[in-house]
Amino acid sequence: MTDETKILLTAVVTSAVTSFFTVGVIEPFKAWLQRRRVRRWLYRELIHNCLALTAWVQSAKRYPNIQEHTAAQFASEYKRLAYDLAVKDAAFYALPHEEPYRIDRMYRDFELIASGAYEDAQDCFLRAQVAAASMYLAVKDRSLSKRVAFSVSTKRQKQYFRENLPRVPYVNFDDPPKLKERLHRRYDAFKYWLWRKFKPLF
Q: Which of 152, 157, 160, 183 would give a disulfide with 44, using CB separation of 3.0 to 4.6 Å?
């Protein structure tokens, strides 16, 4: 084999190995990092919006005369920058299971409240109550990830989940839950017990 052939063969092999490594390792890893980044931004923004609504709902329950200001109050605190950026990114549509659809539906509800689409003040307030609970409802039925929700939460936001998740019923199934779901629920029950038992530590 001549030197020229060896050099050419080495170049071909090196190029093939580099291409394989790029396509098989680097690109999937970059895509995973981007999905993780988008997911965390969205969860952080969703939690903020739900807590903003929760704080308002709790205040307005005590003072019904201010319920007519629900849309204006939420609009002043509503954030959707992460969502607007995410829907332009392919990583959003690569999120697991039904996450993109559930997140999109939550933002649609937020948008209707913030824009004043519900002209009746009582109807708007009732919608706000439902939307305020949407994050922990989605976490409870596993449409959104509990692990990610807790990882991006502040101490106060974690407390919000620990107070509300045990109170929320599981999604009703037409058929009895399968083994995997039953195991999930047993694990949940154990965590809820730990939260109550060691509440000062969390």
A: 152
